[in-house]
Amino acid sequence: MESLQVQVQEESILVEKVCQIYEKLSKLETLKPSKDVDNLFTQLVHACIPHSSINIANLPANIQEIRSKLIRLCGQAEGLLEAHFSTILGSFKNPLHHLNIFPYYSNYLKLGRLEYDILNKHYSTTSETPKRVAFVGSGPLPFTSIVLASYHLKDTTFHNYDIDSMANSMASRLVSADHDLSKRMVFHTADIMDVTDELKDYDVIFLAALVGMNMDEKNKVIKHLAKYMAPGAILMLRSAHGARAFLYPVVDPNVLHGFNVLSIFHPDDDVINSVVISRKIVEPVNIDNNYLHLDIGSLMASSCKYCDIQPFNHPLGHMKMIDESM
């Protein structure tokens, strides 16, 4: 009983702190990088990164509304931060030699290695590695594609999709001076909901965390991908768990109709996003009767009966994570 009281108190303190930060952020005239903006988001991230048993799904409606608005603010600020540093990097003769000026570049290196290892564990076709990969929501600073193409998938072509032509122009400039990546990185300006038959060409599709800022929007995108992706192709999604769900949307495995959910990985360090890997169903099945239903709470460490802490076999072995293998 005492431990439960401590847990409730800790969660109450967390929610109060997050709400206070939201109030300050919502009153700012701009979310462009500045001392005040950087300080508030640093506070927010530091509040949300530590392990928490909080189940976002159980929060009252007013807190859910604040969380939804906060995620949108985070998305806006992230876009402005990426555009700011993409502009700086684009001023160098070879931008790829200076990527470490971005303050969170090391996180992308870790996340790229993590996602590659997860993909490598589950990717199985006649070819050893994917030949064509799409990244939906690549933005002005397409670090995931750059990291994967540079260090892990060196023979793979990456097709980056973003609805913003300016973002694509900035991103393209980053790789234009590189003899290799300029040939293997393609940029498409399009709303992914308007992309249909081309989706069948990709072995793997990554969906950025902030494509679909709420569950309704994200569900529509996932349903669209399920309709047009090739059977057997892999869909990699970014999610969040625990208090990190104040920063990014949570992907409920129940919405992945048309896909087999293979695993869900929850990093337990400064890599914020969880990773959900799924495979487009090859044979038609009765979804209602054959789909493994998981409560949204199963994405939260507090209530996941499928979770166990496992060491992950890669050079970042010090990272702890929860692996929910389906």
TrEMBL record:
EC annotation from Swiss-Prot or TrEMBL: 2.5.1.43
Domain of life: Eukaryota
Recorded GO MF terms: methyltransferase activity; nicotianamine synthase activity
Catalysed reactions, semicolon-separated: 3 S-adenosyl-L-methionine = nicotianamine + 3 S-methyl-5'-thioadenosine + 3 H(+)
InterPro entries (alphabetical): Nicotian_synth, SAM-dependent_MTases_sf
Broad EC category: transferase
Gene Ontology BP terms: methylation; nicotianamine biosynthetic process
Primary role: Synthesizes nicotianamine, a polyamine which serves as a sensor for the physiological iron status within the plant, and/or might be involved in the transport of iron.
UniProt key word Methyltransferase: yes
Family: Belongs to the nicotianamine synthase (NAS)-like family.
Originating organism: Artemisia annua (Sweet wormwood)
Keyword terms of this UniProt record: Methyltransferase, S-adenosyl-L-methionine, Transferase
Name used for this protein in its record: Nicotianamine synthase
Pfam families in the record: NAS
